[in-house]
Every structure is written in C-alpha cells, then in structure tokens.
Structure prediction request, 552 residues.
Amino acid sequence: MIHFIIDGKIEREFEVSLAIGEPDYWVFLDVSEFKGKNATLQIIEENKAFDKIYQADSYPGEENIYKEHLRPQFHFSTRRGWTNDPNGLVYYNGEYHLFYQHNPFGWKYGSDANKAWGHAISKDLIHWKELRDAIHPDDLGGIYSGSAVVDKFNSTGFQSGDEKPIICIYTSAGGKTPWSKNKPFTQSIAYSNDRGRTFIKFNGNPVQDHIKLSNRDPKVIWYAPLNQWVIVLYLDDEEMGIFTSNDLKSWQLESRYKRDALHECPELFQLAIDGNEQNKKWILYAGNGRYDIGQFDGKKFIPDVQGITYNYGNCFYASQTFNNIPEEDGRRIQIAWGVIPMPSMPFNQQMLFPVELTLRSTEEGPLIFAQPIDEIKEIYGRNWVYQDKVIEEGHHSFTEEKNKNGLYDISAELEIGSAERFGLNIEKIEITYEIKEQKIHCQERFASLKPMEGKVKFRILVDRETLEIFANDGQIYMPVRSHVNITDISEEFSKWGTDFNISEFLELYPYKFNYLVPYVKPIIVGKGDIIVFSEGGITKLIKMEIHELNSI
Prediction:
C-alpha cells in the first residue's frame, strides 16, 4: 500500500505490485494537478523496489503505447492498467466524454483502493484522447460505477462561470479499502466547471446514504415532464430503486423494480418505435443487457414485456448510453465494456465499438436493433465489392489484397439456395447460418434469425481480438472475442469435476471470464483470408463489401 501525501494530507492511497528485478512494464501516477506543492510518497510495507520510483515527464515504454501486438486498433483501451465498466457517458459542447472504471496500477481488477474513474474525450467517438483520471478514491471508498449529466439549469448551484457544469454521480464503495474501513456503500457527486478537465467532489457527500447491501451504479437522466432528475440505482438481489431529485443533492425513493437477472449497472431511456416520435417506449436494462420495454411516468416503471435478450455474444457487459446528445442528432448511442483479457500486455480489457440503438417493429413485437455508428466511415481505407456470385460447395477466399492491419468492416448479403448452411470464416473464426434451424452461430454462441425474403445479412467489424457481428440490419448483435471456445474451457474444468454450464453462466456474467485467463490463448484476428463458404449445396452471394479500416 502506498500513500501519496500533499502538505500532510493523504490525497491518494493505492496498491501496486512492485518488481524487485526487471519489471514487466512501468505504471505512472499523474501529479500535474499538485504542481508547486510539497509531496511525500509513503510505502506501508518495506520493499526494495520502492527505491526505483522517480519523477519525470514521461515513463519507460511510453514510446510503444498503442503499438502493442494485442492493442485494439479502433476500439478504446486505456494506456496502462485495467479497464471495466464505461461510466458517465455524456456529450457537452462538441466533445463526447467517456469515463470508465480504471485501475491504473495493475493488469488485474486489483484492489478497490485503486478504483478510479478514468477519462477520455472525443469529437467523433472514434479518435479518443485519454486525460488523467477524473475521480479518485477517498475516505468514503473506492469509486464505483455511475453516470454523468450536464446541469443546464444549474439545479445544483455549482455553476461558477459561463460553462454549464458536468455532474458525475457515482458510488462510494465504503468498506472496500483501508481508508474507508467500516463505512457502507453510498452515493456521491462531483462537478466540473471547465468542460470536464478537473472535478471537485461535493463537500456534502454522500448525497444518498446506504439503503441495502452493496447498492450502487446510479444512472441519472433529466425527466422533462416533471422538471426533475430521475436516478435508477441497483439496490441488490436483482432489484432497482427509482429516485427523483430537484438538485442531485437530495434524493427521494419513489418505487422499486425487480425481476430475474436484473443485476448491476442500470440504464433507462426512451426510444421511438420505427422512428415515430408520437409512439415511444421506455427501455430499462442492467449489466447483461437483457431489456424490458414499458411505460414510465417519472416515478414508476411498468413493463409491457420483460427480459428480452439484446446481446448474443460472449464479451459484452455493463453498457451505458450517452446523455445530452443534441436534439438535431437525436441518436441513442451505446458503449459497452468489452470483456476481453489481454495477456502479457501493460493494459487489460477494452470498450466495444459505439452502436446506435433503434426500436423497430418485428413479428415478435418491438425489438432493439444495434448498428455501428456512421462515424466508422471516417477510418475507411480501400474497399472491395463482390456481387452476384454463386458460392459452390466449399470454402472460397475473397481477399485479393490482404490488409496489413487485418482491420475490416464487412457487409455481406447471401441468398438461401440448396445448401444446408453457409457463412464466413475470418482467421479461424467461423460465422455460420444453419438454414434448417434458422440460427446464426459463432464460437459457442448462437441466436435465432429468420431470413428476410430468403436472404440473410451480415455486418462484421474485425479488430485484433474482437469480431462484432450484426445480422439482418442489427436485429442480432453478437460481439465475440477471438479466444478459444468456452466449450474448450468447459472440458478443462470437467477434469476437476466441475459440472455447471460455463457457457450459460458467462451469458449472464461475462466478466467472470477474466478469472479463466490461464486457460485461454488469444488469437489475433485479421491478416488472413476472408472466406465465404457453403456446405451441402450452393448459396448465392448477392453482395459483399469489404472496407479496410485504418488504425486510430
């Protein structure tokens, strides 16, 4: 345990595994905000490696940032350390803000004493600039997940200049760190008057006292019909609490909402059915993305239908959508945590690519569709188009010129013929459509998918360790990691007598996959052929367009 002390006061408390010999990589503590002050670094346990710590404007390995062989090339990942839940997604004055759960001092989740809000900004949701961590642990606890809003009407009274304050609402995870010993989980706020460059914690924190067990992850929205804030808070035991507030400093519990598999990281927003602004529904979901469609009056959510599967992949969790998107844009944009271990790297995990959510009518009723945001076109390079080709039985390569980076945005439309199954194979990862079953398969995951007028559409984003699959215009969303199949891991566990279904377990709790890292070997996607195959007969390729993607 290390204490960073300024003028006699502890400002940071964190744990780090210090190497006695040559380190695997170096980590850093950004101290720029304390420039000109007297600082002391104090180690609690004696360690000779402590003598290696030094001050500088750079750190060893900085020259290789974003060049590492497992580094995502068009998905956000942090420079150093562990990343999980996206937090505080908000747009303000030409910038998208992405906060995220961050352990800057280690590869693993690590100690809650390290759990801060990392921070990055972007003008296009593609190119991100990582800033210093925004909110750090204190005597109330580690900084768990939450959300952010722009206080346009200065309801908090925090505004001190021309800029509207950005308010971050987060969980103080008391009792999980030495500094917060014997304190409970509570909810706190911090604010910025300089476009999110610095944040000040409210001196009246916590703004919401402990309610139940590990209550956490507040999602805040502005509910215009009642001119008030609405907060959805995970209480525990698959139950959410819905609160209202006039100033974010005092919350009123209005109702509770509970169903199976409603766990952590709540989200609440409205979508128009088929783009009809006169016909809207409210969406409520939690960490695994299974969503409910219903009515909301600002105080109580009443479901029409519950527990609809949204994500069919194996690396999606804890998604959040952006607050304060301009009305002229009007999109509902979502980013999720990409649960993807990065062995032997100085960083770990990533964010999935931003998607636009829409609510569309189907035979099964209204469903959420997901599609990559249009801004992806900004990183298009070369492209290849193939049309009206009969795919004979077998595997056929369609990569005339290999992309040196192996990064693609692939769109393919195939017409059902006499084949039993067809699909694409991208660097040992096969995406298959079973015609009789009417199901799409990839690795151990699958989803039911009816053809559209005898055709099936695929769209696939290919990065170093991910394939994000969108089928039939986004009706099916299946982000998958490039690691070995869960079935292989299941066989490994079966040797020890483990009898639970790992695939089923990880569908609800994919972050648990990180505990299986010793049993997985990453496969770097790309730099290989893009293959279209047909088995048991022929298939017609109506059109396939392959866009090379440039690294960001």
Notes: The longest strand covers residues 81-92.
